[in-house]
Amino acid sequence: MLLYLLLGTSFGFILSRSGAADYDYIQGMFLLEEFQLYGIIATAVALTAPGLWLVKRAGRTWRGPVRIDPRPFNPGNVAGGLLFGVGWSIAGMCPGPIFVNVGEGKIYALAALAGALVGAGAFGTLYHRVQRIFGLPPLAAPPLAAPSLAVRTGKG
Amino acid sequence: MPLILTGLPPLHWAAAGAGIAAVTLLLLVLANRRLGISSGFEDVCSLILRQAYFRRESLLSAREWRLPFVVGLVLGGALSAIAAGGWTPTWDLGMFDARIGFGPAGKLAWMFVGGLFIGFGTRLGGGCTSGHGIFGMSNLEWPSLVTTLSFMAGGFVTTQLVYRIVFA
After folding, report:
1. Could A30 and B155 be called an inter-chain contact, meaning their C-beta atoms sit closer than 8 Å?
2. Do A144 and B52 touch (CB under 8 A)?
3. Which of A49, A117, A138, B77 shows the smallest number of beta carbons within 10 Å?
């Protein structure tokens, strides 16, 4: 738990100081006036990709055999991506920076966080309807099954 | 261009990108976890909501890392402000103030609407800049590339509309 807190804090600090959590840099990216965010994302992918390849080749992590659940395609990727992009532009924040901006003391970020929670809550509540429209996978877990944080299937 | 928070120039993009890659890989190597932040909204929802969607094993089993991670994001932002000279609540919003100029109430409404799109859109799209843009693309998953192109397109059209047409 401390590990995740530390990783999150490092990630948050970097986002805060990089421009990724800055309204003007996000607009500058979408206005094609600022290279900063393109450089950040390209560098991150260019360095993460070979690292991932090595981890997968080794096949193991400190917590058991490496397990990366792929994310299969469904039409929701396109529709959801478009909607998220609209929100990213309006708020000038993607999900990580929403939390970072709250920490920075930007008061309006609390409204973005509230909106995101309501949006995610609405999606989960309307899942059965949205599922039919976009051909999303059915829910695997039985409703109201007792949450089991200790058991992690497929691991170990 | 200075950052709104600090008034200072940002980190070099290569340094920031390398830092993001380091955290992403550490999370995988140390914890066997795939980076993905927008699912954190569901984690928070799952603390209150009881619908089947929020009781999935895949969601609940990831709370152990993702909830402390997003708390860390908040802490990281606070530390960044403190290290830059002090943490102070602010309404400053850069070019939004210069070009659109809504006051506090308008900003809250604007941000809430943006948040709705982000919360619903990332759930429908199955991820955000971190899970699809960084991790998925690094793992050469084509659905992540499609999603990333989709949210870049959505953001591009919206910003162009807002700053080149409506508030030009």
Report:
1. yes
2. yes
3. A138
Cβ neighbour number for residue B11 with a 10 Å cutoff: 21
Assign B90 to helix, strand or coil.
Answer: strand
Residue A12 belongs to domain spanning: 2-134
Rounded to whole angstroms, how far apart are CA atoms B68 and B73?
9
**Virtual CA dihedral for A7, A10, A13, A14, nearest 10 degrees?**
-100
Residue A125 Cα, gap to closest chain B Cα (Å)? 6
Interface test with A, best of B35, B54, B79, B111 (most A CBs within 10 A): B111
A151 falls within a domain: no
* ipTM of the complex, rounded to two decimals: 0.97
Residue A142: which H helix or E strand, with range? none
* Closest CA of chain A from B85, distance in Å: 12
Yes or no, beta carbons of A10 and B65 under 8 Å apart: no
Please name which of A79, A140, A132 lies closest in space to residue B53, comparing C-alpha atoms: A140
- Does residue A154 belong to any structural domain of this protein? no
B10–A25 CB contact, under 8 Å: yes
Domain count, chain A: 1
pLDDT tens, per residue, chain B with 168 residues: 999 999 999 999 999 999 999 999 999 999 999 999 999 999 999 999 999 999 999 899 999 999 999 999 999 999 999 999 999 999 999 999 999 999 999 999 999 999 999 999 999 999 999 999 999 999 999 999 999 999 999 999 999 999 999 998
- Which residue on chain B is closest to A65 by alpha carbon? B32
Nearest-Cα residue of chain B relative to residue A99: B74
Whether A105 is in a domain gets the answer yes
A120 touching B (Cβ < 8 Å)? yes
Is A141 a member of any domain?
no
The H or E element containing residue A60 is strand A60-61
Count CB pairs under 8 A between chains A and B. Answer: 524
Tokens of A89: 């532009």
